[in-house]
């Protein structure tokens, strides 16, 4: 029975009447934006560098054949 009560206390959202100052708010926004930007950079590097390597290898093979 206690497990069910604890489960519902965790699941039901509790409102906090807390003040988030401008420094903490701007820091949180900057951190979120930088995190998303880092994910895009990681995805770009995972996709771009193998393609760059393959293009370089193909260009080298075409140059060697001539």
Quick structural gist:
The chain is mainly alpha-helical and 66 residues long.
Walk me through this protein's architecture.
The chain is mainly α and 66 residues long. It has a domain at 20-65. 82% of the residues lie in helices and 0% in strands. It contains two helices and no strands. The protein has helices at 2-11, 22-65. The longest helix is centred in the middle third of the chain and has 44 residues, at 22-65.
What fraction of the residues are assigned to beta strands by DSSP? under 5%
Oligomer: single chain
Through-space gap between termini: 80 Å
Q: Specify the overall morphology.
A: elongated
Helix content: over 70%
How is the biggest beta sheet arranged?
Answer: none
Coarse structural class: mainly alpha
Mean pLDDT figure: 86
What is the element string, with H for helices and E for strands? Answer: HH
What are the low-pLDDT stretches, counting only 5+ consecutive residues below 50? none
How many beta strands in the DSSP annotation? 0
> How many helices?
2
Radius of gyration: 25 Å
């Amino acid at each position: 029975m206690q497990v069910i009560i604890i489960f519902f206390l965790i699941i039901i959202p509790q409102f906090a009447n807390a003040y988030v100052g401008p420094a903490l708010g701007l820091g949180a926004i900057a951190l979120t934006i930088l995190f998303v930007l880092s994910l895009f950079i990681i995805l770009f590097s995972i996709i771009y560098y193998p393609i760059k390597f393959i293009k370089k290898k193909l260009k080298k093979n075409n140059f060697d054949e001539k």
